[in-house]
Write a structure and sequence with these properties.
3 domains, Ribosomal Protein S5, domain 2, single chain, alpha+beta, four-stranded mixed sheet
């Protein structure tokens, strides 16, 4: 099953006096780009958390917010730096006395000052149970994120499959038209030569040689074979059960489909083939727009 690159997942875990909450959001990106917002007490665990996320997300930008909070009753976990508050209030009075500047220092201003509120019980290090709870919350968030990315990926695949089927049908029409192309080229050449040189004596062998040369130049059999292979492979990638990323490979295949289509259009010089080639390019472009969201 294929995945979208966009999704959201949340996980949590609780221990006596401790609550861990993890939120993950993934966005489109050409490569894997992991951005974490961790509390200081988890800086030492970042490499392990990054390893776990990288194992589940191979493409896309992932933003993680991880919070650790105490839930003990009777202790809010912060204290007021009274000495700093007194110093700020005294400084405000001195400014008013010395410089005649009037004003008020309100609560919001004081609380916004650095170090006014201090943690009474910082989590310098988590014990083994705390670390296990953090990893459990991370895994729960990753599972939720993966489930949403799979759902969105399958929705995109359902939209892409009919377009790939349409591309296969168009390639079949091009093959049928191309099969008649060499004979048509020879016939047109002979008709033109007869019209322009009705009174001239021409070597039939040389004329047949030139006709065969032009027919060979307009032969697009190899290009059609490669085109059929690319379209079939694009369809098979949409059915992969292993969940491996397919976005980059589909994008490469669509580039190759575009290139082969241009070559066929240029070599054939046939109006009906040109019309099919244009229709094929339009379908491929629509598919390419949709796969930008696939991992």
């Amino acid at each position: 099953m294929i995945r979208s690159m966009t999704g959201y997942g949340k996980g949590s875990a609780e221990l006596p006096g401790l609550r861990i909450t993890v939120e993950l959001r993934s966005l489109n990106n050409r490569f894997a780009d992991l951005r974490f917002r961790l509390p200081p007490e988890l800086y030492a665990e970042e490499s392990e958390i990054r390893r776990r996320v990288s194992a589940r997300v191979q493409r896309g930008r992932v933003e993680m917010g991880l919070e650790v909070e105490r839930t003990d009753n009777g202790d809010r976990g912060v204290s007021l730096n009274r000495a700093l508050v007194r110093a700020v209030a005294e400084a405000a009075r001195e400014v008013e006395r010395e410089f005649g500047i009037e004003g008020r220092v309100d609560v919001n201003t004081v609380l916004a000052l650095p170090d006014v509120l201090q943690r009474t019980r910082p989590l310098a290090h988590l014990d083994e149970a705390g670390r296990a709870a953090v990893y459990g919350a991370v895994e729960a968030a990753l599972a939720a994120l993966d489930a949403e990315r799979r759902r969105e990926g399958e929705t995109l695949a359902d939209e892409i499959r009919p377009r790939v089927a349409r591309m296969e049908a168009i390639v079949g029409e091009i093959r049928a038209l191309a099969a008649e192309l060499p004979a048509a080229v020879q016939r047109k050449l002979l008709e033109r030569v007869e019209t322009l040189a009705a009174s001239l004596s021409l070597d039939p062998a040389r004329l047949a040689q030139e006709a065969a040369f032009l027919a060979d130049r307009s032969d697009v059999t190899e290009e059609i074979v490669r085109l059929e292979g690319h379209v079939r492979q694009a369809g098979s990638l949409l059915e992969r059960p292993d969940g491996e990323p397919v976005g980059k490979r589909l994008d490469f295949l669509l580039q190759e489909i575009h290139r082969e289509t241009n070559t066929i259009n240029s070599k054939s010089g046939d109006l009906e083939i040109s019309r099919r080639a244009l229709a094929l390019k339009l379908e491929a472009e629509k598919v390419r727009e949709q796969i930008q969201n696939l991992e």
